[in-house]
Amino acid sequence: MITLYGFGVGFGLPEISPFVTKTEVQLKMAELPYRKERAMPPASPKGQLPFIDDDGEAVADSTFIRAHIERRYGFDFDAGLSLQQRAQAWAFERMIEHHVYWALVGARWVDPANFAKGPAHFFDGAPEHNREKLREDAQFRVAENYLLSGLGRHAPDDDIDLAVRSLFALSVQLGDKSYLMGEKPCGVDATAFGALAGILTPFFESKLRGRAEEFPNLTAYVDRMMDQYYPEFAWTKLRQAA
């Protein structure tokens, strides 16, 4: 039995982290039995979530977990794709994880209202005398990483405009297909779903979410993926939420 370590339910999502969501959806795609446990990043071999324990072998980082699944269980997440399509899927995954993801981070962690509503509560269990200091330090570190990512160096509206160009690229790639690369889900769909659901969750208000809602094929895609991989989760359809 594989054990997947993640943050758990929160922010109107079945899993707070888009990277944990990516791995969980890929485990579902591969039809591998697993159980899920809550953990914090320091417990991971790489200091980040997700990580898995597969029969005593710890594997951290969602991309390396995918490689582990493909190697150990012989599952090809991109089965049916040509070599060129596999390259395109990898390029979209890198765009999502190194650009779209940081836009999500900005909306959650840098925006004061969203930080207070969401990530600030990660520290509710900390001793009262240093709870606020831990919150401030964590927000500062994330904001610093947001700056280093490149997006945080721009004016607030400019960073959203850049992120929307990536959302536009995803919308064009999806078109009227069911999934990014065709009519069958593949590995990059797990990545895209995790990030897009994180942006579009009705839990947070943000300019990024408002702009993302302008792409109806992306909102329908998130609803479709949620129905397929988390049918038990009480998800409000995005058009209804809007």
Quick summary:
This is Glutathione S-transferase. The protein is an alpha+beta fold and 242 residues long.
Structural features, described:
This protein has two domains: 2-73, Glutaredoxin; 83-230, Glutathione S-transferase Yfyf (Class Pi), Chain A, domain 2, CATH 1.20.1050.10. A four-stranded mixed beta sheet has the order 2-1-3-4, with helices on one face. The longest helix is centred in the middle third of the chain and has 28 residues, at 83-110. It starts with a strand and ends with a helix. The relative contact order is 0.14. With 242 residues, the protein is α+β, with helices and mostly antiparallel strands. The chain has helices at residues 18-29, 62-73, 83-110, 112-117, 131-149, 156-174, 187-200, 207-212, 216-229, 238-241; strands at 2-6, 34-38, 51-54, 57-60. Keywords: Transferase. This is Glutathione S-transferase. InterPro entries: FAX/IsoI-like, Glutathione-S-Trfase_C_sf, Glutathione_S-Trfase, Glutathione_S-Trfase_N, Metaxin_GST, Mito_Protein_Transport_Metaxin, Thioredoxin-like_fold, Thioredoxin-like_sf.
